[in-house]
Amino acid sequence: MGEEEWEIDLLVLIVALKASGLPPADPSGGDGRAQVQLDARSFQVALDAKYFTSKDISVKVLGDMVEIRMEHEATGAFGGVKRSVTRCYRLPEKIDPATIKSELNKDGQLVIKGTRKPF
């Protein structure tokens, strides 16, 4: 396939995706980074999850790691979109893995929190 044909096919794909009404893979133009906060008492990670529902999200504590999986599929008139995101974060040494909790807030952020181990 020549370069010109590739450009035309790509343009057709872009037009079809826009016409399908499906959101682009990263409509925010963001860089996909998480917001991580750590202080003397707690640990928190916030990820953009606005195109996922709570049913699409799995958060597991595996030893000293937190594994986050988000998977979503949608189909429109011109095709479908499948999103799959997996992130792993090592818990800080003093954070108790048993305290890890996750919540999908109304702004579409997945927030994962944990607190410090007792002294």
Automatic annotation (TrEMBL):
Gene Ontology molecular-function annotations: unfolded protein binding
Gene Ontology CC: one annotated term: nucleus
Domain SHSP, residue spans: 25-119
PROSITE patterns referenced in this protein's UniProt entry, alphabetically: SHSP
CDD domains: metazoan_ACD (cd06526)
InterPro entries the UniProt entry points to: A-crystallin/Hsp20_dom (IPR002068), Alpha-crystallin/sHSP_animal (IPR001436), HSP20-like_chaperone (IPR008978)
GO annotation (BP), single: response to heat
Family recorded in the similarity comment: Belongs to the small heat shock protein (HSP20) family.
Name of the featured protein: SHSP domain-containing protein
